[in-house]
Design a protein that fits this description.
Number of helices of chain B: 11
Distance between the termini of chain B: 94 Å
Number of strands of chain A: 38
CATH topology of the largest domain in chain B: BirA Bifunctional Protein, domain 2
Strand order of the largest sheet of chain A: 26-29-30-34-33-32-31
CATH class of the largest domain in chain A: Alpha Beta
Shape of chain B: rod-shaped
Radius of gyration of chain B: 43 Å
Number of domains of chain A: 6
CATH superfamily of the largest domain in chain B: Bira Bifunctional Protein, Domain 2
Helix content of chain A: 25-40%
Largest sheet of chain A: 7 strands, mixed
Structural class of chain B: alpha+beta
Order of helices and strands of chain B: HHHHHEEHEHEEHEEEHEHH
Number of helices of chain A: 20
CATH superfamily of the largest domain in chain A: Phenylalanyl-trna Synthetase, Chain B, domain 3
Helix content of chain B: 40-55%
Structural class of chain A: alpha+beta
Oligomer: heterodimer
Radius of gyration of chain A: 41 Å
Strand content of chain B: 15-25%
Chain lengths: 788, 338
């Protein structure tokens, strides 16, 4: 919502530094997004007329324009716009002018041709958003005169305010003035239009039937005669332009002016095109059509409201857009003026469905003021009379009421006000804050309870808490001293949150960067990764490439690796912790969202991946895990394993299937770790029960076995552990060897066993016995033989 | 019978020769050889000493004394020479081990937490320090949790404040990617009775075209306090305390009236900047009575406040990130800067 300071001042004596006034509005919840001082930088701009247009001899995108400043002498200007014609009147920034953006206009040569000034677009002089072409002025202006004087532009301040949905009152200049006047403690008054009603009474010339009262809370119709459609006066057109609306003609402009000033959208019909002046207000029928003002035929639904004529044909979409059949034209003399209050929800649904959101619909859907319609109609008549001096208001008004919201008084407890805001507020202070913005007080409802009548322009205010917010707002949030809640509480992270942080820290220590791929995937991504494709889909994605919710972290991390490879970042280690989404089983509403940890090791093999996992396991104090090597979808067929803790699978480790890598355009061998944190952290972990360290010396023995390739090293390890018993305090696989001395299909696995007793120094005999026991056990249980 | 003087002369020769050899010994090994050849078990001096038995007792005493003197002199010379040689040997070894420490290759590097995670952790830590616990909830939500329970009934105009991504579960437009972390408030209040002092960080989704200041996936942190006697003043004080703790002393907070369906009174939360301006960080307000009613908490008995802000935007502001989309590119050249 844009407002002009000069316009605000028509309702209240608002004084003060413009910046300070802006701060007051922000502090009232009408945040100033932009403040512009108008009229600044317009000195030196004059009215000129285009005499001739010639191509620039050395440039295609510039033309030479000869202009006349009233003396008939051509003055050459180089101009980059091509929208003007010979005879057009345009603004010219003369030499020596400093433009609003600070640019100084000087005589200069452009590609060899002199330019003696600059023709201006509306945007360049702060009179609109149009950058595209030179501003074309009315041709009744005296050439050579000062542009500001000619257009009646006065120095002013334009505020662009952000208005919240709960402030229907602030959707008008008058409403903003009312709020600001209350803050400044100056009196506020609405306009009192001076209009003499003449001619035939509107009753008898127009009638309104509200067929569906749940659609329309109020419909006021008046008739204006002697209308001549023509241009609006400059002052009115300038204000509309400043507030971001394009002047069209006096009838449309006055309609918009009244809406901006009083917040009451309105509509005009050519009375001659409304048979018997009869209007019927009802919900649309399914499939009913109407050609709207923009010439488009639209099919309606029962959720749209319409204004129909005597023959029940729709001639307007309620609160959204008028119909073409009754549009004001040059031939119009009598106007039927509609001032209505529409159900906000109806307008919200209808304008959204039709994709027709407008200044009018945005006001109706916030809840307009059903009681301002008489004033708005009079103001319309007054302004139209000023704009087309023969227009007159017919006496009599056609006024029908349907349903509006429940406007019963609200019981306001003084104690509750203080409790919510946190400072003591008395009854008198409450009144002093609320009365200036239109709230009224009925008799006291007993001690400490006041009956508050909410003004008609506050559709949003329905409950005690809404009134309390208004008190806090006008008291000023910054005048509420802060304090801390009195109670003392113990803050903490949950075990899961602590574990997650631990895992991330360990990954970072292992040299992994934390990545954050979007959880959205393209159709086919999951299939290309050979992971479950039974995914949840987004029904209304922005783009199809972001329509599938991931069931696995693999596609996102592989894309990240491919991205990095393509930017010459190789050997990258990335990890991510995040949710994956699994379609819910029948009868369950929401998807499963297990949290996964995924890690990719570009240019590294499965062993490196297992090392990373084993550090993670060690950090979490997960004991008794083992790898179950097997073929797993999407992973390298001979280099991947399930991670088991007890009998539970908690993750996968290995390498990505080369076929998947190719599909994701990853060129390096890629190690992979994937943990289901929900499963992993459900296993016993984190227990750190210290046991003492033996004071007695330890003995190391090395054993190398030639073992069949099919037998995992983990089985040899298990056999050693099982047979060595409690004296085994360390077991390290220190060498794997294939080649001379070891039969084909076998490899040598060399282990160091560290043996130690807690209560004595091991004797040579004990060590020798244990050594033999281990050798026997391994050879007996596995296809393995002791080497050398 | 031998002449003791012969022995003494021989001793002097031996001693002089040994000391010369000691002085000339170039290494500890050479020195050891000299030691063995002179005063060692089979050294000449030792052999000489063994011959003393054949001397007269008087001569034996005189020669014996001379032997001991010679031995002491040799031992002293060896010790001195050893000390010198040891210093030289240590020096030589250290010199042989000389390393140019600037030759280090970048073989190992640490990884890096994502800037969003690092920011989230810091935020959590400040609030944990203020007595809050941390709650999480699902990212795919029902309309009820995301909107209705938060005082945003179906077709409420305020729904236009959130562009929602819906998923293909349940009735059309009944299941969605949460547009804010606020549904976790509802789940928390259903699960726990007041008093509640919690923050709820997490991921949220909107149907926003990605640009420098918007991404369809983003991260929020939400706070909720429900207790007896909680007021807007407590909200203002809590955010001021958070501001000082998180941004440092000298940075202050400001609340401006705003609108959110789930809070009333509602406010925007701004912090002061070093340049003297204000920076909008998030929204907050007193929990709306309708939200309490939706979860069965009596709004007459309990009051509360809620606040929320964008983690990514905070990270953007405080780490000089130009474009929010960079958070999701996973380019290690960006990731490794944090």
């Amino acid at each position: 919502m844009k407002v002009l300071l000069s316009w605000l001042r028509e309702f209240a004596p608002i004084e003060g530094d413009p910046v300070w006034l802006g701060e007051q509005m922000s502090d009232l919840g009408m945040a100033v997004e932009e403040m512009t001082e108008l009229g600044k930088g317009l000195d030196g701009i004059v009215v000129a007329k285009v005499l001739d247009l010639k191509p620039h001899p050395n440039a295609d995108k510039i033309q030479l324009v000869d202009v006349d400043l009233g003396d008939g002498e051509p003055l050459q200007i180089c101009c980059g716009a091509f929208n003007m014609a010979v005879g057009d009147v345009v603004p010219l920034a003369t030499l020596g002018t400093t433009m609003p953006n600070g640019m100084a206009i000087e005589r200069r040569k452009l590609r060899g041709e002199w330019s003696n000034g600059m023709l201006c677009s509306a945007a360049e002089i702060g009179l609109g958003d149009d950058h595209a072409g030179i501003m074309i002025l009315g041709d009744n202006l005296a050439l050579g005169t000062d542009f500001k004087t000619a257009l009646g532009i006065v120095d002013d301040v334009l505020y662009d305010l952000e208005i919240n949905p709960n402030r229907p009152d602030a959707m008008s200049v008058a409403g903003v003035a009312r709020d600001l006047a209350a803050r400044l403690k100056v009196p506020f008054a609405l306009p009192e239009p001076q209009v003499a009603a003449v001619g035939d009474d509107a009753k008898g010339r127009a009638s309104v039937a509200i067929v569906d009262p749940d659609l329309c809370g109020r419909f006021l119709a008046r008739v204006l005669d002697g209308v001549h459609v023509g241009p609006s006066p400059h002052w009115l057109a300038n204000r509309l332009t400043a507030l971001g609306m394009r002047p069209i003609n006096n009838v449309v402009d006055v309609s918009n002016y009244v809406m901006l000033e009083l917040g009451q959208p309105n509509h005009t019909y050519d009375l001659a095109e409304v048979p018997d002046g009869e209007l019927r207000v009802r919900w649309a029928q399914d499939g009913e059509t109407i050609v709207t003002l923009d010439g488009i035929e639209r099919a309606l639904r029962p959720t749209d409201g319409v204004i129909a004529n005597r023959d029940d044909e729709a001639i307007g979409i309620a609160g959204v857009m008028g119909g073409a059949s009754t549009e004001i034209s040059g031939a119009t003399t009598s106007v039927l003026l509609e001032m209505a209050w529409w159900d906000p929800m109806a307008i919200s649904v209808s304008s959204k469905r039709l994709g027709l959101r407008s200044e009018a619909s945005s006001r109706f859907e916030k809840g307009a003021d059903p009681e301002v319609v008489e004033l708005a109609a009079l103001r319309f008549a007054e302004l139209l009379w000023q704009s087309a001096d023969s227009a007159t208001l017919a006496p009599g008004l056609v006024d029908q009421r349907g349903q509006v919201w429940d406007r019963s008084p609200i019981a306001l407890r003084t104690q509750r006000v203080s409790e919510v805001i946190g400072i003591p507020v008395g009854d008198d202070e409450i009144r002093a804050l609320l009365e200036p913005i239109g709230f009224e007080f009925d008799e006291q409802d007993g001690p400490g309870v006041q009956e508050v009548v909410v003004p008609s322009w506050r559709y949003d205010t329905r409950a005690e808490i809404d009134v309390i917010e208004e008190i806090a707002r006008h008291h000023g949030y910054s005048n509420i001293p802060g304090r801390l809640p009195p109670a003392v509480h113990t803050g903490s992270l949950t075990p899961r949150q602590l574990d997650r942080r631990l895992l991330r820290d360990v990954m970072v220590g292992l040299g992994f960067d934390e990545a954050m791929p979007m959880p959205f995937l393209a159709p086919g991504d999951l299939e290309r990764a050979h992971v479950t494709s039974d995914a949840v889909h987004i029904v209304n994605p922005l783009v199809a490439e972001e329509s599938v919710l991931r069931t696995s972290l693999r596609p996102g991390l592989l894309k990240a690796i491919a991205f990095n490879e393509s930017h010459r970042n190789e050997h990258v280690r990335l990890f991510e912790t995040g949710r994956v989404f699994l379609r819910p089983p029948e009868g369950q509403r929401l998807p499963g969202e297990p949290e996964h940890l995924g890690a990719v090791l570009a240019g590294e093999d499965a062993i490196a991946a297992v090392e990373a996992w084993s550090v993670l396991a060690n950090s979490l104090h997960v004991d008794g895990w083992r790898l179950d090597q097997r073929v797993l979808p999407g992973l390298h067929a001979t280099r991947s394993a399930r991670i088991l803790v007890g009998e539970h699978e908690v993750g996968l480790v290995g390498e990505i299937d080369p076929e998947v890598l190719a599909a994701y355009h990853v060129n390096e061998r890629t190690g992979w770790v994937e943990l289901d944190l929900d499963a992993l952290l459900a296993e016993p972990h984190g227990e750190t029960h210290l046991h003492g360290v033996s004071r007695y010396p330890s003995s190391d023995i090395d054993l190398a076995f030639a073992v069949d390739d099919q037998v995992p090293a983990s089985e040899v390890r298990a056999a050693i552990e099982a047979s060595a018993g409690g004296l085994l305090v360390g077991l390290d696989l220190f060498d794997v060897y294939r080649g001379e001395g070891v039969a084909d299909g076998r490899r040598s696995l060399a282990f160091t066993l560290r043996l130690q007793a807690g209560d004595h120094t091991l004797t040579d005999g004990e060590v020798a016995d244990l050594r033999q026991r281990v050798i026997d056990a391994v050879q007996a249980s596995l296809p393995a033989t002791l080497r050398g | 019978m031998t002449d003791p003087q012969q022995h003494i002369d021989r001793l002097h020769e031996l001693s002089a020769a040994a000391r010369e050899q000691i002085a000339n010994a170039a290494s500890l090994d050479e020195l050891k050889a000299v030691e063995a050849g002179s005063i060692g078990k089979k050294g000449e001096l030792t052999l000489l000493k063994k011959q003393l038995g054949s001397l007269d007792p008087d001569d034996r005493k005189a020669v014996g004394q001379a032997v001991n003197e010679a031995k002491s002199a040799i031992e002293a010379a060896i010790a001195a020479r050893r000390a010198t040689l040891e210093v030289e040997a240590r020096r030589a070894q250290l010199e042989a081990e000389r390393l140019d420490l600037t030759e280090h290759p970048a073989r190992r590097r640490r990884g890096h937490l994502h800037i969003t995670t690092a920011s989230r952790d810091r935020l959590e830590d400040v609030f944990v320090g203020m007595g809050y616990t941390v709650a999480e909830g699902p990212e795919v939500e029902t309309d009820w949790y995301n909107f209705e329970a938060l005082n945003i009934p179906p077709s409420h105009p305020a729904r236009g404040m959130w562009d929602t991504l819906y998923v293909d579960l349940g009735e059309p437009e009944s299941t969605l990617l949460r547009t804010h972390t606020s549904p976790v408030q509802i789940r928390v209040m259903q699960a726990a009775k007041p008093p509640i002092y919690m923050i709820m960080p997490g991921r949220a989704y909107r149907r926003d075209t990605a640009d420098a200041t918007h991404t369809p996936v983003f991260h929020q942190i939400e706070g909720l306090v429900v207790d007896r006697g909680i007021s807007f003043a407590d909200l203002a004080g809590t955010l001021e305390a958070f501001t000082a703790a998180f941004f440092g002393p000298g940075i202050h907070s400001r609340l401006r009236p705003s609108y959110f369906p789930f809070t009333e009174p509602s406010a925007e939360y701004d912090i002061s900047t070093a340049e003297g301006g204000w920076l909008e960080l998030g929204g907050c307000g007193m929990v709306h009575p309708n939200v309490f009613r939706a979860v069965g908490i009596d709004p007459e008995e309990w009051t509360g406040f809620a606040f929320g802000f964008g983690i990514d935007r905070m990270a953007k502001t405080f780490h000089g990130l130009a474009d929010l989309r960079d958070l999701f590119t996973n380019d290690v050249r960006l990731l490794e800067q944090f």
